[in-house]
Amino acid sequence: MMQQTDQPVASSTTNEAAWKLHPQLLADSIPVTELPICAVRLLDDTRFPWILLIPRIAGLTQWLDIPQDIAHQVLDEVHEVQQVLQQIFTPIRINVAAIGYTFTALPVSAMMLRGRMSSGGMAHANRITRLID
User: Fold this and answer.
1) What does pTM read for this prediction?
2) Contact of 7 with 85, CB cutoff 8 Å
3) Is 50 exceeded by the pLDDT of residue 26?
4) Which domains does the chain have, with CATH numbers?
5) What is the pLDDT of residue 117?
6) Quick one: three-class SS letters along the chain?
7) CA separation for the pair 127, 96 (Å, rounded)
8) What is the distance between the alpha carbons of residues 110 and 89, in angstroms, rounded to a whole number?
């Protein structure tokens, strides 16, 4: 599994010091873990297991804004989280999309198609964290 870190593995093109989580994402999601580039959060939605991977880089509004030298690392983190979600929830499909049109940050969402999450998002967040760690 991916190794967590307090600092991004990326080059100096990242600007984590200036990065702030959008207040709406902060209010509507539960922290799961911090990967080298992305903050991983569980959206508070009992209809679907819905994970957000949010690159901790200021100024991102679309995928194209991710510096080319770290874009592959972001994809690696998205792939890793998808594998964990597949293991926990066994969905029919996992949809991955950038939802930057809604926020000034660039959250990448992974939403599973199948079933409902029971209430208790923190329990799901803890299960996901254990598998990512």
Assistant:
1) 0.71
2) no
3) yes
4) 23-132 (3.30.428.10)
5) 52
6) CCCCCCCCCCCCCCCHHHCCCCHHHHHHEEEEEECCCEEEEEECCCCCCEEEEEECCCCCCCHHHCCHHHHHHHHHHHHHHHHHHHHHHCCCEEEEEECCCCCCCCCEEEEEECCCCCCCHHHHHHHHHHHHC
7) 20
8) 12
**pLDDT tens digits for range 101-118:** 555 566 677 776 655 555
Query: What one-letter code names the amino acid at 118?
Result: S
What is the widest separation between alpha-carbon atoms in the chain? 41
- Lookup: tokens for 25: 């994402």
Nearest CA-CA partner of 133 in 6, 34, 62, 42: 34
Residue 56's Cβ-count burial label (10 Å; 0-12, 13-18, 19+) is buried
Q: How far is residue 59's CA from residue 18's CA, in Å, rounded to a whole number?
A: 9
Give the contacts of 112 (CB within 8 A, at least 6 positions apart): 48, 49, 50, 85, 89, 91, 93, 94
